[in-house]
From TrEMBL:
InterPro entries: AB_hydrolase_1 (IPR000073), AB_hydrolase_fold (IPR029058), Sec-Metab_Biosynth_Hydrolase (IPR052897)
Coiled coil: none
Domain spans labelled AB hydrolase-1: 4-237
GO molecular function: hydrolase activity
Source species of the chain: Streptomyces decoyicus
UniProt name for this protein: Alpha/beta hydrolase
Keywords of the record: Hydrolase
Amino acid sequence: MATFVLVPGAWLGAWAWEATAHALRERGHAALPMTLTGLGERSALATPEVGLDTHIDDITAFVVEQDLREVTLVAHSYAAVPVTGAAARLGPRLERLVYLDSAPFAEDTCLLDVMPDDVVDQLHRQVAEHGDGWRLPLPPFELLGRFSTLEGLDEVQLGLMRTRSTPQPFSTFQQRLTHVGELGSDVDHVVVACHDAKALLDAGVPTLDFLNQSPWRRFHLPTGHWPMLSTPVQLAETFDAVVSSTC
C-alpha cells in the first residue's frame, strides 16, 4: 500500500482532502493531507514574507520530520510549484510524484506566468483592494472560472470553498522557482488530468507535450479543477489505480 502526502492548491488547507483521504484509508493506504503556511488552520502564520520558498520548506519538513519513505507526493493546482521545488530535495524518499490537474514548473517560473495577462491584472487589483497589498482572497467565482473550470461543483461545494478558503499570501504566486533538480529514474512520474489539463494535453500544447511521453504516465478524471470536492471518492479510486498499476 502507498503513503500519500496530499498538498492542496491555493486558498485551501488539509480540510479539502478529507473525503479523499478517508476513501484512500478505506483502501488500505496511508493518507496524509497537509496545510501550507498561512492557509487553512495555519492562517494565523500568514505574513507578507510568506512566499514560495516557505511552502517548499513546508513540504520538505512535513516528509522529513515524520521520516516518511516511499512517498507518493500529490500536487494539486498551485501546489505544483512548491512540490516541484521540494521533490528534488526529498530525492530517495519519493516513490511517486503525482500532478493533479497541474504540471511541474520549470526553473525561474512562477504561477502567474501561466495565467492570461488580463487575469493577472485582475488578481493584482484584488490584492490591492481587498488584501492589504499582500494577500489574495479567493476571487469571485466568475473570475476563478476564467482560469480553472468549476465543473462538478454544486452550490454546497461552492459555498464550502467560499466559507473555508483563506487568503493566499500573494508572494507565493509571484516568487520564481529556483534550484529545480532532476528526479531519479526510479521515481514514478504521473499526471492525473481533469478536464482542464486533459484538453491541453490532447491539443499537444508544446510546453506540456512532455507529459504525453515516457517516463510520464497519464490518467484522466472527468470533472473540473477541484476533484477533491467534486468527486472525492472517484479521485481516491484514481489514485489507487495509479498505485496498483505499478505494483
